Amino acid sequence: xxxxxxxxxxxxxxxxxxxxxxxxxxxxxxxxxxxxxxxxxxxxxxxxxxxxxxxxxxxxxxxxxxxxxxxxxxxxxxxxxxxxxxxxxxxxxxxxxxxxxxxxxxxxxxxxxxxxxxxxxxxxxxxxxxxxxxxxxxxxxxxxxxxxxxxxxxxxxxxxxxxxxxxxxxxxxxxxxxxxxxxxxxxxxxxxxxxxxxxxxxxxxxxxxxxxxxxxxxxxxxxxxxxxxxxxxxxxxxxxxxxxxxxxxxxxxxxxxxxxxxxxxxxxxxxxxxxxxxxxxxxxxxxxxxxxxxxxxxxxxxxxxxxxxxxxxxxxxxxxxxxxxxxxxxxxxxxxxxxxxxxxxxxxxxxxxxxxxxxxxxxxxxxxxxxx
Length: 372
Fold this sequence. Notes:
Blueprint: E1 2-7, E2 14-20, E3 23-27, E4 29-32, H1 44-50, E5 54-58, H2 59-64, H3 68-72, H4 77-81, E6 86-90, H5 93-99, E7 102-106, E8 109-113, E9 120-123, H6 125-135, E10 139-140, H7 153-175, E11 184-189, H8 195-206, E12 212-215, H9 224-236, E13 244-246, H10 252-260, E14 265-268, H11 270-276, E15 279-280, E16 287-288, H12 308-312, H13 315-323, H14 327-354, H15 357-368
Parallel strand pairs: 4-14, 5-6, 6-10, 10-11, 11-12, 12-13, 13-14
Antiparallel strand pairs: 1-2, 2-3, 7-8, 8-9, 15-16
Helix pairs in contact: 6-7, 7-8, 10-15, 11-14, 13-14, 14-15
């Protein structure tokens, strides 16, 4: 399923090939987030042309709307959304605890009220696996307990215990699923910001022998120094021969740090969400296109970018679109931001192949922190 193709000489970074039901994914790989079976403000054909072969969707959101009956009538999510490549579905654990107006963790699962219509639902770890098998997910994530910054070690321990118990039940359900051969199941490491709990969580989930492992509970508001420390700690606990996934990171700085620690997969709404709010990436750092200084700027968003937006439109025109609240503004900025991240990943792979990843990272960040 997963094979490392190259180890960097200067760091823990590596490239690899992840074989899934809908084709091969070259890692490191960023997954654009298509929460509701769509990556906002960009067509899937454009993502395909950029080289993406794995995107993320969300089981919790799809379960609530349009509902499994609708998706099942299309024989799964791929046909429903018109995407022929791979899909990872998040279980929705984070959304349950962050979006639901009422959410209660029970031994059997989660009892919650929909953030859409206020209706009450219960989801067990088994039901979440069933939903993802029904969606036809290429990678499924088990239900876990997400925890915020600042909780006590006792609270974090309880979350680890529940996450492990649910992971065991999820694995049993997956093993009995009729479509399990087409769906990989990853485990999710928790433990909040307690290293002993991170170690315990990793050891308990590794014993269950999942197809890959995700690091949950990072990039949730902690300082960058703390993120880097616990990323390194968590990554070091995971098997070398399994794909590693850090959930919810999408800034160039965090992506580069993760790759340097041997992470293979990552996702985040950040590139698309910020694009819709006029914040775009450039090689000299992020730019807010609504700023007055770009009113008459005839240059592209990023002079060295190869995306179609930069080849065609000026900063002045982009600012005009955003100030006029034109839908096209979000579409063009999203295309640029997603292209920028994908190109960054490609450059990282090339640096790993050449054995000089740390040099590349340093050079990139030196330029990226300049004022554009």
